[in-house]
Amino acid sequence: MNLNTSDQRLKKNTVSVSNDVLKKLQRSVNKKINNLRAQGKLTKASIPTIICLFALSLFEVQAVTTFTETFDNDNANWGDVNSNPIGWNASGGADGGGYISTTRSFADIEAGSTISFRAHDEFFLPDKAGSSDGAFIGNWAADQVSLFTASVRHNSPAPVSFSARFASPFNFPGAIAVVFGPPVMPNKWTDIAFAIDPNNPAIVSYEGQNFDAVFSNIGHIQVLTGVPEGFENNPAPFTFDLDNPGITVIPEPSSSLMLIGGSALLFLRRRRS
């Protein structure tokens, strides 16, 4: 997976700094400095503050690239608990568009697998290369994937906890991430997120391996549903829905941003000395 030239299947959104924006920010900083100078308020203390705010604004606008599977056209070759093609609805998703859906009972979940949604590299169709055209497959560590997000919904009478598992194409090793916080309430699209970070306490297991071993070779994404207390043997069928699974990339700061930030720190150090 090369996230800079990733598959067209996913909706890509990049917030970046153009030369025009950079020039406008520079002019804004210069104007602020000139105004302070004209008012006699320009001090050594104010300059690094302005520079730091300028640098931070650049970090904010250039920081994020997101890749999202919208399910607007079909189920994107995602699977259910048994790896069969999962159900798809053309409208009614979290953003009004398509979404995928499965029906299960808590008794079946308790007796079998908690996995309700699967995106696997081996889910091939004649013109496909895995779920979402293989756009999620690859080295997440090298590509600096920092976050996995999705929108979920269910119609169970009780709140349901969702979690996720990320694994290699061979399905082992894997990392299991658990959502901390309140479970998802019924009949309402709810956003969930998992930080892809070795220090994230939500990642409760690497199945005998470590962060790099798992996230350097992602081939499987699995979204899991928990069983509410008291519903372990409930045979009633309930519907579980998924929309907009996506990954977020936060790249290393560019050399120009590092230079700006470094200049501000150098100014501060000189002032303090």
Description of the structure:
There is one protein chain. This protein is α+β, with helices and mostly antiparallel strands. It folds into two domains: 3-63 and 252-272, no CATH class; 66-249, Galactose-binding domain-like (Jelly Rolls, Sandwich), CATH 2.60.120.260. Helices cover 24% and strands 27% of the residues. The chain contains five helices and twelve strands. The chain has helices at residues 19-38, 46-62, 106-111, 211-215, 255-272; strands at residues 11-14, 65-68, 87-89, 99-105, 115-120, 145-154, 162-167, 174-178, 190-195, 203-205, 220-225, 237-249. Strands 1, 2, 3, 4, 6, 9 and 12 form a seven-stranded antiparallel sheet that branches. A hairpin with a 6-residue loop joins strand 7 (162-167) and strand 8. Helix 1 (19-38) packs antiparallel against helix 2 (46-62) and helix 2 runs antiparallel to helix 5.
